[in-house]
């Protein structure tokens, strides 16, 4: 009985701490992605991320995406800092710098390389736990096989769950 009471008291104290936070500790995003590759290839796909927020303005995100066109595939896995401006209850603008890897494949050929995305976006807060990512825009760079492709961009939109 004492153990159950101790667990209940501990849970209550932890819930008070969580209720006092002024920012979400974790944000999960998932949605649609449109990617433009140099010189003139437009692809559709998906974008997902998970961010852990250290405080109200700084967090660290892991970002994953896939873009597809004519049997070709382009997947990225990147991570980096996220800077958010949480002064409004309605919207949350953010900026990020993501570094990681990418795999481009198609026609029986596959190329691994370095990927980087610099950009940001705007979340429209629907309530405390759900937001609509109205737009996320990124400049996307890919380096593989001694070649650098740096005239790429991606735009994403979707839903954000906050915990």
Structure report:
The chain is mainly beta. The protein has a single domain, classed as Porin (Beta Barrel), CATH 2.40.160. It is 11% helix and 70% strand. The chain is built from one helix and eight strands, in the order αββββββββ. The protein has an eight-stranded antiparallel barrel. The longest helix has 18 residues, at 2-19. The two termini are 31 Å apart. Residues 11-20 have low confidence and may be disordered.
The succession of helices and strands, N to C, reads HEEEEEEEE
Integer-rounded radius of gyration: 19 Å
Widest beta sheet: strand line-up: 1-2-3-4-5-6-7-8
Please summarize the sheet with the most strands: 8 strands, antiparallel, barrel
What percent of residues adopt helix (DSSP H or I)? Answer: 10-25%
CATH topology: Porin
The CATH first-level class comes to: Mainly Beta
Distance between the termini: 31 Å
Q: Total number of β-strand segments?
A: 8
Number of alpha- plus pi-helical segments: 1
Which structural class fits the helix and strand makeup? mainly beta
Which residue ranges are poorly predicted, with pLDDT under 50 across at least 5 consecutive positions? 11-20
Strand percent estimate: over 45%
Look at the structure and give the mean pLDDT: 90
Number of domains: 1
């Amino acid at each position: 009985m004492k153990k159950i009471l101790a667990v209940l008291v501990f849970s209550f104290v932890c819930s008070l701490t969580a209720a006092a936070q002024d920012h979400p500790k974790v944000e999960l995003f998932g949605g649609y992605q449109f990617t433009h590759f140099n010189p003139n290839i437009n692809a559709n796909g998906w974008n997902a991320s998970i961010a852990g927020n250290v405080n109200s303005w700084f967090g660290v995100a892991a970002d994953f995406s896939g873009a597809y066109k004519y049997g070709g595939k382009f997947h990225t896995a990147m991570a980096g800092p996220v800077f958010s401006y949480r002064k409004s209850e309605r919207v949350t603008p953010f900026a990020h710098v993501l570094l990681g890897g990418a795999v481009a494949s198609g026609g029986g050929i596959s190329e691994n390389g370095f990927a980087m995305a610099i950009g940001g976006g705007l979340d429209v807060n629907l309530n405390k736990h759900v937001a609509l990512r109205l737009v996320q825009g990124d400049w996307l760079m890919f380096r593989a096989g001694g070649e650098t492709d740096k005239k790429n961009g991606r735009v994403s939109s979707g839903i954000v769950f906050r915990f």
